[in-house]
Amino acid sequence: MSESPAAESSSPERPVVGILGAGRAGTAFARTLLAAGVDVDICSTRSPRALQHHLKIYAPGTAPVWPEEIAVRTRQVGPGIVILAIPQEELDDVDPQWVSGTVLVDATNTWQDELLPGWLEAAIAEQLPTSMAIAGHFGRARVVKALNHISHHDVDKEAQPDMPLSQRRAVAVAADDEEARGLVMGLLVRMGFDPVSVGALAAGRIMEPDGPLFNRPLRRDDILRYAR
């Protein structure tokens, strides 16, 4: 394995967040984080070298890394957060060990035409929120549901870090772990959103594609109506 470019782009004063997935959502998150002063390591099915040109276009300044390196710098520098931004049909391609010990932000959604892993299909058949199944699969990470109910088209333009919280777009956050929820909410504030806790991870159902929060421009009071 050749060395990834992440070390060259490291900035010791800046926090680092990892992103699993360099598609439209992953690169939108990356651009917003970079604009907020957060360094980003990102990976995909392509090698870091093969990913470089893509990132120069869609997320300049992002450091491509091998998947097994995605959590290394965020665990070392902080805040220990990795964003899961891949199609759910590819979840079995992610080794849970890669995100062990991190706060894993589940920004994924279930679409009807996807061929899902068996363990996720079983959870859906039992009418469980998908984040609960993901939390079980990635058992050594602390899973937080966030960023899935805002379209990747809106992430850049809706992030307003210079605006008061009350004037920002509100985003829902669901988690069982209070500390993990707090870390993600702090990151969302830095990115330019107004994070609102809706309760435990099971409450993440309202953030899914058929839920009342999905792909709607919301303010805090809109989300609090559904909080548990």
From TrEMBL:
This is NAD(P)-binding domain-containing protein. It comes from the Bacteria. Keywords: Oxidoreductase. InterPro entries: NAD(P)-bd_dom_sf (IPR036291), P5C_Rdtase_cat_N (IPR028939), STEAP_metalloreductase (IPR051267). PANTHER family: DUDULIN-RELATED, F420-DEPENDENT NADP REDUCTASE. The keyword Cell cycle does not apply. The keyword Oxidoreductase applies. Residues 17-109 form the Pyrroline-5-carboxylate reductase catalytic N-terminal domain.
